[in-house]
Write a structure and sequence with these properties.
The protein is an alpha+beta fold. The chain has 15 helices and 17 strands. Strands 1, 8, 9, 10, 11, 12, 13, 14, 15, 16 and 17 form an 11-stranded mixed beta sheet that branches. A 4-stranded antiparallel beta sheet has the order 4-5-7-6. Helix 13 packs antiparallel against helix 14, helix 13 runs parallel beside helix 15 and helix 14 runs antiparallel to helix 15.
C-alpha cells in the first residue's frame, strides 16, 4: 500500500478548472442509475450475485482491440477504464487518476489511486504511462488522439506526467475516451497489438471471447471501486434489433441495448428505458471521389431531402429533428448555433438527372435502413439513381472509410470519444481525421477546427466549435437527419443499469438481478 504521506499529497492536488458542463442533465438516478455504494466492501452486497445476461447490438469489428470502435464495447461492459471518465454533465471526473493538475501549457500531472490490474499486478505510474504510449503509437491512431501528439512518463511514485506537443486545454476530457484505457504490461504483444483479456482494471474481467458471437466476463474481486454485485456477465452480440427485443421478452436476456423503436411499445410495461443522447444520425457524402466530389451535387442532394418526416415516422417520436452535428442533448449548442457558411449553389435538375450513386448503411440499428430507404426515395424523386447497400456494421466500416460508397447513413455519438466537441470535429471532418466517413479535406474547415482546438476557455471553445460546425455544414459533406434517444430494454428484476447519454457505460458495480 502507498504511504499516508503520498495520499495527503494527492489530496492536496487541485482538479483542473476546465470541468465545465458540456451536456445537459445527469445520468438517470434511482433504481436504474449506477449505484456503487451498496457494492463496496463486498459483504454489504450480494455475496455471490447472479450473472447478468446482456444483448449487445454491435459485434466486435476489430477483435476487441482497445484502440478502435470495439473500445466502447469494453467500456460498456465494465472491463476497461482510463485515467479519467465523464460525469453526468460531461465534465472530466476521477477514475484511475484520483486528481490532476496542469503544470504548464503542455504538461499535466495525474496522481493515481491504489488499484490493481485484473492479472493481479499493481497499477503503477510506469504501467499507466506505457499504456498511454502504446495508444499514441497505435495504427490507426485512436480517435481521441486525432491531431494530438502526446508523451507519457512516470513522475515519481503514483504520478504520471502527460505532455502534448502543443497546448491541449481538454486533455483530462480526452483521456476519458474508451480507446485510452489503461492496460497492464502483459496486454501488449511483440506485434504491437493489445489484448484486454485479464489485463484491464474494471469491475468485470473479460475471460473468453467467441468471435463475433459472445463473450464471457467474471467479476473482478479486487476492483478498486468495490466488489460488483453481479458475479459476471454473459454477453451476446445480436445485430438484429428485433431478435434482441425478443430475447428480452422471452427472458433469455436481462438487458438489451438499442431496442428498435418499432419494438419499444411491445415490451412489457416499465422495461423500456429511454434516455436522450448526444448521438446524431447523418447522411455523409463522399467528397473525395464520385459524383459528390462536386459541391453543387452535394448541395442538390441536401436540398432534395425532407428530414422532418424521419423523427416523426421512422423513429416514431423517439428522436428529435436534425439541427446540426450537435443536437439538443447538448444544451449549450442551441444558443450558439450559427448558419452554415460557404454553401455552394445546388446543381440544376439537368445536372442531377440520372446521376448514379451508391447509398450505404448498416442494420445493427434497425432504424437506419428505414432512414436510408426514405432518403433513397427522396433522392430518386430529385433525379438521382440510387443503389442501396445494407450490411452489418463490421462489414461496412472499412469500405466506408475507403470511399467505396458515395453516401453513408450513420449514427455517431458526438461525445463518445472525448467529451470535447472539438475533438469529434477533428476526427470526423478534417484532412487528417481518423473517422472521416465523408472523406472531407477542406482548408477552411481545418483552419476553423484548429482555431477551436487552440481555445482554452470552455465557453469560448464552444463558440469556436459551433463556428467550425457552420463551416462543415457549409460544405454539405454531412446532412444531420435526427438526434437519437437510446432505448434500453431492462428486465423487471434488474437494477442499477446505467442510463448513459454518452453510451460509454451500461453496467457497473451496482448492476444486479
Amino acid at each position: 500500500m502507498r504511504s499516508v504521506r503520498r495520499r495527503r499529497l494527492a489530496a492536496g492536488l487541485l482538479l483542473t478548472p476546465l470541468l465545465a458542463p458540456l451536456l445537459s442533465g445527469c445520468f438517470a438516478s434511482g433504481a436504474d442509475s449506477s449505484d456503487t455504494s451498496s457494492a463496496k466492501g463486498g459483504a454489504n452486497g450480494s455475496a455471490e450475485g447472479r450473472r447478468l445476461r446482456v444483448a449487445l447490438a454491435f459485434p466486435p469489428a476489430e477483435n476487441l482491440s482497445p484502440y478502435g470502435a470495439d473500445a466502447t464495447l469494453l467500456s460498456r461492459l465494465g472491463v476497461t477504464e482510463g485515467l479519467t471518465k465523464l460525469d453526468g454533465n460531461g465534465a472530466a471526473a476521477p477514475s484511475l487518476a484520483e486528481s490532476w493538475t496542469r503544470e504548464n501549457g503542455r504538461s499535466w500531472l495525474f496522481t493515481l489511486r491504489d488499484a490493481h490490474f485484473q492479472d493481479g499486478t499493481v497499477v503503477t505510474a510506469a504501467a499507466a504511462a506505457a499504456s498511454l504510449t502504446h495508444a499514441a503509437a497505435a495504427t490507426p491512431i485512436p480517435a481521441a488522439l486525432s491531431g494530438v501528439t502526446l508523451t507519457a512518463e512516470a513522475a515519481g511514485e503514483g504520478r504520471v506526467r502527460v505532455t502534448t506537443a502543443k497546448p491541449d486545454p481538454v486533455l483530462p476530457l480526452r483521456l476519458a475516451g474508451p480507446s485510452l484505457a489503461v492496460l497492464s504490461p502483459k496486454a501488449y504483444g511483440k506485434d504491437g497489438k493489445a489484448t484486454p483479456i485479464a489485463t484491464a482494471t474494471g469491475p468485470f474481467e473479460l475471460t473468453k471471447v467467441n468471435g463475433s458471437t459472445s463473450a464471457t466476463l467474471d467479476r473482478f474481486d479486487d476492483y478498486w471501486g468495490g466488489r460488483a454485485q453481479a458475479s459476471g456477465i454473459d454477453a451476446k452480440f445480436i445485430a438484429d434489433g428485433t431478435a434482441r427485443a425478443n430475447a428480452l421478452r422471452s427472458g433469455e436476456e436481462d438487458i438489451a441495448e438499442a431496442v428498435p423503436v418499432s419494438q419499444a411499445a411491445s415490451l412489457a410495461k416499465g422495461t423500456a428505458r429511454e434516455v436522450p443522447t448526444s448521438r446524431t444520425t447523418s447522411l455523409l457524402l463522399n467528397t473525395r471521389s464520385g459524383p459528390f466530389a462536386d459541391p453543387a451535387l452535394r448541395a442538390a442532394a441536401r436540398a432534395a431531402l425532407d428530414t422532418s418526416v424521419l423523427a416523426k415516422n421512422v423513429f416514431e417520436g423517439h428522436a428529435d429533428p436534425g439541427q446540426g452535428i450537435f443536437g439538443p442533448a447538448l444544451s449549450w449548442a442551441a444558443g450558439k448555433r450559427v448558419a452554415p457558411v460557404g454553401r455552394a449553389k445546388p446543381a440544376g435538375a439537368g445536372a442531377v438527372k440520372g446521376t448514379a450513386i451508391t447509398l450505404a448503411t448498416y442494420d445493427n440499428r434497425p432504424e437506419l435502413p428505414e432512414v436510408a430507404q426514405v432518403l433513397q426515395q427522396q433522392l430518386e424523386k430529385a433525379g438521382f439513381t440510387v443503389k442501396l447497400t445494407v450490411r452489418e456494421y463490421s462489414r461496412l466500416e472499412s469500405d466506408a472509410l475507403a470511399g467505396k460508397f458515395d453516401a453513408v447513413v450513420a449514427a455517431r455519438n458526438t461525445m463518445l470519444d472525448t467529451g470535447d466537441p472539438v475533438s469529434i470535429l477533428a476526427s470526423d471532418y478534417t484532412c487528417d481525421g481518423t473517422y472521416n466517413l465523408a472523406l472531407l479535406c477542406d482548408k477552411a474547415v481545418d483552419k476553423a477546427v484548429a482555431t477551436a482546438d487552440a481555445t482554452a476557455d470552455p465557453a469560448k471553445r464552444q463558440d469556436a466549435a459551433m463556428a467550425a460546425e457552420a463551416r462543415i455544414l457549409g460544405t454539405d459533406a454531412v446532412v444531420p437527419l435526427v438526434h437519437q434517444r437510446n432505448i434500453l430494454g431492462v428486465a423487471d428484476a434488474v437494477q442499477g443499469v446505467v442510463l448513459d447519454p454518452y453510451e460509454r457505460t451500461l453496467v457497473a458495480t451496482g448492476t444486479r438481478r
